[in-house]
Amino acid sequence: MMIPRRLALMLPWATAAGTLALGGLPRKLHAERLPALTEGLSPVSPPQDLPDGVFVAQDGSSHRLSEFKGRGMVVNMWATWCAPCVAEMPSLEVLAKALAPHDIAVLPLSSDRGGADVVSAWYKAHGISGLPVLLDPKGAMARAFNTNGIPTTVIINAAGRVVARLEGAADWGAPEAEILIRKLTAV
User: Which of 27, 50, 86, 93 is 20 to 30 Å from 106 at the Cα level?
Assistant: First the structure.
């Protein structure tokens, strides 16, 4: 099919305008639009050994997941520039607060290369105060867990075994999420 010259010259501008128009749409999703945790969570059978990669805390100190052995863990790999990650972070904070009395750690590992300042500023701008600033800027932990993208969340039981994973966003703040995570992380 032959495109008239006038139309052919306008196509790049139309594409750019469409991209700009889409960029103006609200990017913040709400938890009520997130899929339920049970829709995407996959059991890992048999449970796998915990990879012992290193991540970095806000103060620059290095840590290993093995330091948390004996506790359940919800390890979430995310970034401030990832729209699905941004959508699920408020619900992940709800989960962290609900699990804290049960000695289950929620560890959001940011792959942002701008460091702790970028994540801290993002938390402040979005009213997140119940999650630690943890970094995986070179993606070492994401590679150790063989993730295909972010967000990816891995559930680890108190024995230090990977028992479930979810690739994609979920509503972590739903009451059934807390119950399921408590069940999965128990030994």
Answer: 27
Asked whether residue 20 is domain-assigned, the answer is: no
Percent over 90 (pLDDT), the chain: 74
Residue 143 falls within a domain, yes or no? yes
The CATH number of residue 70's host domain is: 3.40.30.10
10-57 pLDDT, tens digit per residue, is 343 333 333 333 333 333 444 447 888 877 889 999 999 999 789 999
Q: What angle do CA 87, 92, 96 make, to 5 degrees?
A: 165
Domain that holds residue 42: 35-185
List of long-range contacts for 25-31, beta carbons under 8 Å, 24+ apart: 27/83, 27/86, 28/86, 28/87, 29/83, 29/84, 29/86, 29/87, 29/169, 30/87, 31/87, 31/88, 31/90, 31/91, 31/171, 31/173
Query: At CA 184, angle to CA 181 and CA 185, rounded to 5?
Result: 85
The total domain count for the chain is: 1
Q: Report the predicted TM-score, pTM, of the whole model to 2 decimal places.
A: 0.82
| Residue 173 structure tokens | 């703040």
14 within some domain: no
Q: Is 110 helix (H, G, I), strand (E, B) or coil?
A: strand
The answer to the question of residue 155 being in a domain is yes
Residue type, 2: M
> Would you say 133 and 58 are in contact if contact means Cβ atoms under 8 Å apart?
yes
